[in-house]
Amino acid sequence: MSDTSLYLKTVRRIALVVAVAMSSYHLYVGFFGTPDAFTLRATHVGFALTLAFLTLPAREADAGRGPRIWDWALIALSLAAAAYPVLVKDYIYSRFIYIDELRTADIVFGVAMTLLVIEAARRALGLVLPVTVVLFLGYALFLTNTEPLLLLEQLYLTTEGIFGIPVAVSATYVVLFILFGAFVERSGAGKLFMDFAISLTGHTAGGPAKVACVTSGLFGSVSGSAVANVMTTGAFTIPLMKRLGYRPAFAGAVEAVASTGGQIMPPIMGAAAFVMAEFMGVSYLTVATYALIPALLYYVAVFAAVHFEARRLGMRGLPKSELPRLGEVLRERGHLFLPLVIIIATLLAGYSAPFAALCGIASVIPTALLRTSTRSAVNLRMIVDGLEAGAIGSIMVALACAAAGIVIGVITLTGAGLTFSSFVISAANEMLLPALLLTMVAGIILGMGMPTTPAYIIQVSLLVPALVRLGVPVESAHLFVFYFAILSAITPPVAIAVYAANGISGAALWPSSVAAVKLGLTGYIIPFMFVFGPSLLMIGPWTTIGATTVTAVIGVIFLAAGLNGWLLTAASRLERVILIAAAFVLIKPGLWTDAVGIGLGAVVLALQLRTRRQEARAAPAAAETRAPESAPNPVRPAE
After folding, report:
1. Mind listing the pLDDT tens digit for each residue in 450-497?
2. HSE-up of 96 (CA within 13 Å, CB side)?
3. What is the per-residue burial (b if ≥16 Cβ within 10 Å, else e) of 196-222?
4. Cβ(353)–Cβ(283) below 8 Å
5. CA atoms within 13 A on the CB side of 143
6. Using alpha carbons only, how large is the chain's radius of gyration in Å?
7. At a CB cut-off of 8 Å and minimum separation 6, what does 410 contact?
8. What is the DSSP string of 481-499?
9. Of 171, 169, 153, 150, which Cα lies nearest the Cα of 161?
10. Could you report the per-residue pLDDT of 33-75, keeping only the tens digit for each?
């Protein structure tokens, strides 16, 4: 064995030990209680930094060569900078913030931690978030009167900076749910989700595309990552769609849009949902309740768009002989749904999200052991792999939260949030709709190339206060920016979920991005619907919630039909315009708007029914005029 391969093997073992230690630490904390804030948060960030410098190269040219000398130096510095606040926590808690002078060690380790977080975020997440952090730091240092040492104190020696709420949520909530997803995936649930979706929808028109919708919704609710979802389920669904006849661009777009919606689909959603619960001061179950109807509307719209597109193109489903039977799927692997059921039941019983995640994790292995078909997946290797994957999957979220904490620290110290809110309100001339449009654009731009969690966190400080000042309910304002942080994953030019899907479909960026925006257009409209009608967030009387939900479902179906040119049959240009107009009218709940929207849709339905009857009468006549099958085929000219 060469020295290089021996070195790489040694590094791999060290990374495995660190990853297992990180997951084990968080499981221990989850079961036996959290230590003080600085101990938990600094340890979490220290693990993430160590794994980042161990596993992520500084340059693409260094990929596959293992950590270089400077990487080991950064690892040592990371451990020291993370250990320092833990070792001197009594001093930190007893000092007067912004009054007592900083020690030399405070300055050295504070600067080191800030730079280490920025560099590790660059390796894990690309340039967008680190550049954003640097811009905010530059704003504080050069465009305000903020003293450098005061800023450093805010970022490193308080819980308002790097070790703020985002890192707290990552350390207590998110890492446990990522571990749950890692264990569920290794128990064989991925195959269950796929077979379940295929058996339900594979035989219908455009079956594989509908499979992508159902599978991505199920898997995404566990993984909470659009790109990971695309790479996992898309490897199966995209080739299947292409085989059925879908264009590569459309096949990739379906998977990208369906996978992106996983971050808004309860029960688990994305990491940002846990941060939202903390910011709003409500339970995670409350956030999931708010998100449920909008998430269902999103998937109804995507499912309808896929169905109408398949009918327009004349596509059929897969032969039933090639599909698994639903009963057999449930008999063999249906028990693997049990951990998800346990998490939902635990949340509904009033327990905290971390406790629900722990119950879910504890149930995965016993559940897999229930049947022979899944028992073979359970072994020591599966447990170690799950612990390792959980820690590796937590790196991006932990570093994103730490980097976002720097931005939050700057905004809090400088008052930039109030300044930006005033700018948005004045630019919108204190009118709600222009303010919402400005917020939407800003949210998509902030989210481009940036993970949902830091994009959401930054928007909470900059955009949510402006919406609340204009009369938007707090719940609607938070979910509004949350949605657009997510939808940036399918919005060109930086559509990371579409990029991932294109790697499988082989399509070009712009055709697939246009198809993704067309498929996901309802997702851009749903946030406006629950701003104008908070009952979609299950706020208000049940009668109002039910009526608003029904009209919203009708509206998203009309929009999908208008965009894809099919409802009951092919839609004319006029019918498409009327359907889209009906959908937009139904955005704002109200007796008159609902009546107008449904009335416009009824007109199109009447026209379509008449067209179908005419087509039905014309079909026999057309069949009679066809040449008999025995007649010789006309000679076709050479092509």
Report:
1. 778 888 888 888 888 889 988 999 999 999 999 888 888 888 776 778
2. 3
3. bbbbbbbbbbbbbbbbbbbbbbbbbbb
4. yes
5. 12
6. 27
7. 136, 137, 139, 140, 151, 416
8. HHHHHHHGGGSSSS-HHHH
9. 153
10. 888 999 999 999 999 999 999 999 998 888 888 899 999 999 9
- Tokens 């447990």 identify what position? 383
Long-range CB pairs of 492-496, under 8 A, 24+ apart, other chains included = 492/517, 493/448, 494/128, 494/448, 494/449, 495/256, 496/226, 496/227, 496/449
Crossing angle between the packed helical segments 175-184 and 207-223, to the nearest 10 degrees: 140
Residues 295-318 pLDDT 10s: 999 989 888 888 888 888 777 777
pLDDT interval class at 633 (50, 70, 90)? very low
CB-neighbour burial class of residue 628 (10 A; exposed 0-12, middle 13-18, buried 19+): exposed
State the CB neighbour count (10 A cutoff) for residue 54: 21
| 300 burial type by CB count under 10 A (0-12 exposed, 13-18 middle, 19+ buried) | middle
Distance of alpha carbon 457 from alpha carbon 436, whole angstroms: 18
CA dist 48 and 395 (Å) reads 5
Taking CA atoms, 5 is separated from 25, 56, 60, 67, in Å, by 30, 17, 19, 13
The pair phi, psi for residue 121, each rounded to 5°, is: -65, -35
DSSP annotation of 517 reads: H
How far is Cα 38 from Cα 158, in angstroms, rounded to an integer?
9
The whole-model pTM stands at 0.82
